[in-house]
Amino acid sequence: MKRILLHWGGAVLVIGMLSTGCETGAVPSNSSLAEQDSLLNMVKGEIAQKKLREQEVENFRRRQLPRNYSEQLKKYFPIIRKYSKRYGMDWRLIISLILKESHFKENARSHVGAMGLMQIMPRTAREITRELDIAYISKDPVENITAGIYHLYKQLQYFPEADPVNQMKLALAAYNCGPARVFDAQDIARFRRQNPNTWEPVRQALQELTSDDWKLHLEVWEQGVPRYGYFYGYNETVNYVDDIFTKYDIMQHMYKFDPNQIDFEGL
Predict the structure, then answer these.
(1) Angle CA(156)–CA(162)–CA(209) in degrees, nearest 5?
(2) Residue 235: how many other CB atoms lie within 10 Å
(3) Does residue 23 register a pLDDT over 70?
(4) Has residue 94 got a pLDDT over 50?
(5) How far apart are alpha carbons 88 and 203 in whole angstroms?
(6) Orientation angle between helical segments 164-177 and 91-101, nearest 10 degrees
(7) Rounded Cα distance, 81 and 254, in Å
(8) Which pLDDT does position 21 carry in this prediction?
(9) C-beta separation of 117 from 76 below 8 A
(10) Region of residue 141 (left: phi > 0; alpha: psi -120 to 50; beta: else)
């Protein structure tokens, strides 16, 4: 009998016991050899996939994380973790959202007036001020994060029948463009007998809320126009959701361990 050993990241992996045919005089069957080759190929594929993922994470660190990322995350991680847990969300997704919204720039301000790390609009800030009794959403980064996570939680409540992944994608779209646009896109999905609680049909329908699609609108709505008006910012919203989930996928591989054990200095 012969052990086949593979070296993976400094560790020795035993993948099987193979008969050499010398001990018994038996010749391995074709099916046995095929199984051995299949096992070897599977392990080699997993190793290659692991190396590819490690390279992807490293590229993400170098190209997409701000230079002060470690410092900013160390500063705001406690509040991110606290409110993510309170509202039942993954803190890694919230970090991905902040990277997308502001790149961890505390004083970020968009051309439409969205403010802070979570890019809260003034009207939304006023609503949350009344609901949470926090008064400095636009000036205090901690309050801005608190408000942003709460606002995302509110968007999730609009899509209770969706599974967790689709619910989050629909909620992120609503966070970006407002729930009304998503509702109109869901109307189109229903008209086509597609599931309005899944992202892909809604993603397509968001692109069909402009005046160019007036013939479709005549069939979907009695008034002949989307209930909440035409929408021309669909590319931004679609790319917004896709980009955050791309970041989130990488974040899940970056932080597979207990958040209490994060090595901030090593980020």
Answers:
(1) 80
(2) 10
(3) no
(4) yes
(5) 25
(6) 30
(7) 16
(8) 45
(9) yes
(10) alpha
Cβ atoms of residues 104 and 72 within 8 Å: yes
Phi-psi region of 193 (alpha: psi -120 to 50; beta: other; left: phi over 0): left
Question: Measured between alpha carbons, how far is residue 250 from residues 59, 93, 97, 108 in Å?
Answer: 10, 10, 13, 24
Active-site annotation holds for 127: no
Residues 219-228: pLDDT tens digits? 999 999 999 9
Q: From the CB of residue 66, how many other CB atoms can be counted at a distance below 10 Å?
A: 14
Q: Which residues pair with 115 in a beta bridge?
A: 109, 120
Annotated catalytic residue within 23, 35, 54, 101: 101
Assigned token pair, 21: 């045919």
Query: How many CB atoms sit inside 10 A of residue 107's CB?
Result: 11
Angle at which helices 30-64 and 234-254 pack, to 10 degrees?
110
And the tokens for 129? Answer: 């001020």
Question: Do 41 and 69 touch, CB atoms closer than 8 A?
Answer: no
Give pLDDT, residue 6. Answer: 47
Look at the block and give the residue holding tokens 């970020």: 108
- How many other CB atoms are found less than 10 A from the CB of residue 67? 8
DSSP class per residue in 189-235: HHHTT--TTSHHHHHHHHTT-SGGGHHHHHHH-TTSS-TT-----HH
Amino acid (1-letter code) at residue 95? I
Mind giving me the DSSP string for 83-120? HHHHTT--HHHHHHHHHHHTTT-TT-B-TT--BTTTTB
pTM for the full model? Answer: 0.79
Separation between Cα atoms, residue 194 and residue 106, nearest integer Å: 41
- Token match 């006023």: residue? 126
Both tokens of residue 232? 């021309």
At 10 the pLDDT is 47
